[in-house]
Fold this protein.
Amino acid sequence: MSEQSEAIVIGAGLGGLSAAARLAKAGRKVLVLEQSSGPGGYAHGRYHDDYYFDFSLHSMDGVAPGGWAYLTLKQLGVLDRVRFERLDPYYHAYYPDHKIVAHANPFAYESELIRLFPDDANGLRSLFDEMMAIYRDAHRGRVDHALERYPTPEEMLELHPAIIRGVRESWADMMARHIRNSQLKAIVSAQWIYGGLAPSRMNAAAVALLWSSAHYFGGFYPHGGSMAINRALENIIREGGGDILYGHRVTRVHVKDGLATGVSTNQGLEATAKVFVSNANAPDTLLKLVGTEQLPSGYTNRVKVTPLSLSSFNVYLGLDRDLTTEYDLPHDVLIADDYDPEKQYEAIQNGDWDKVPYMMVHTKRTNPESAPEGKAAVTIMCLAPWSYCNTWGTDGNLENYSENAAYQDLKETVAALLIDRAEQHVPGLRDAICIKDIATPLTNARYTLNRGGSIYGFEQSSEHMYLGRLNEETPVDNLFLAGAWTLPGGPISRVALGIRWRWSLPPVSGQQTT
Ligand SMILES: Cc1cc2nc3c(=O)[nH]c(=O)nc-3n(C[C@H](O)[C@H](O)[C@H](O)COP(=O)(O)OP(=O)(O)OC[C@H]3O[C@@H](n4cnc5c(N)ncnc54)[C@H](O)[C@@H]3O)c2cc1C
């Protein structure tokens, strides 16, 4: 079996699909090779009986005008095909002494926090202003880049001072320059789970960008869940003459004289192209598919030693009662039983499940088809380490791990504990459960092949974000990376931005830069 294309994309996660859609839209003959049986990678969704569950997506930022992904989604035509619902409120956050409503109106949210913490009013305002300044700097930088203006480091300091400071600082340090109250610090860090690192290690600019993007321009959920985005991108690729083959795991990227020439898959397919984009995890792409012999040793060492972000633990529940409407629950609720994210991060590392912060997602209102009339679908999610209890009771033996009794016991125990905790906020939850699925870090790795079941690629610390993150360009001139492992990293809106390839890709028709 052989195929010839202009471009090959390895992996149909949102990073791969959006890269392929851009290529197809630009008139390139593109072939997408995906190892699993469907699209989306982590952003996959599926029905269990009459209940729909997104594997990962709770909410995404960057969709509205001014947002990160807006132009890409608009130019590709995704916004004509998928209706995104702005979440209002954006989320609720529960703490021992506070129930915080993160209003869709950021000034109402700010005002609520000032009412609760009047002594920190000025500091809170200046913190939010600095975060917005980082957001503005980042957008200005993007426009500069799109217009092929590349300021020197000295010019950057002058032009974009807020982001230059933010990329070098931890989120904890940035907060400490503005506010003092530790409860307030915990509350404005409520979404730290989306970064995967405690405030002392999380990059300040990464927090500021996500925070400003979502609070000022909105958190969104697509009608039909993440599968609606996947289907739209699949259609755009196919309408542009591209093809997507599922069940094809790329086993090798062939390289000759510093250029990729083709790929082989586990189905015996040999495919050639001029350009290659890998949405597969970066360490495997570079160290296994390409091979260290093709890469400079400094580069491979860097790939080998960069720490991975945490993984996740998910419980997907179908309820035979619509408790979410009965309790008027918003789409997203973040719950922490204390005000110390540093300790919470430690609890995650140690698998202290009675102390980890967690989220509950209720899609009944945002996606009424997620459950039959009078019923509801709920997801409970927390961060989780790969290494917990000797790799979840498997001793590292992942063959048929899902049938391993120790693994099954552990995952049921952790799920039961999280359900018990959720029951305290949603009485009656346990008795209403008619469907239960559980996904551990091993499930993440099995379905997406992400190393360590990592959910944001390399960790998003100050050292490994922005200046310290792998570029989308690789030492193999015509091989590019797409997705969470590369710039700009992180959540879905950034993954779906598309790539700034330096090879001669003509602009998508009607391309704007702002
Ligand atoms: C539980 C959870 C909750 C999350 N919640 C949110 C949220 O609410 N909002 C948000 O914005 N982000 C969220 N995220 C993060 C977000 O889902 C990811 O950052 C994003 O989906 C990653 O997309 P990607 O394209 O980079 O990679 P992936 O989704 O990992 O896709 C990679 C694809 O490549 C394929 N692949 C790998 N190797 C090969 C190979 N050798 N050959 C062929 N194919 C291959 C995989 O099968 C996969 O389909 C969450 C993540 C998780 C796990």
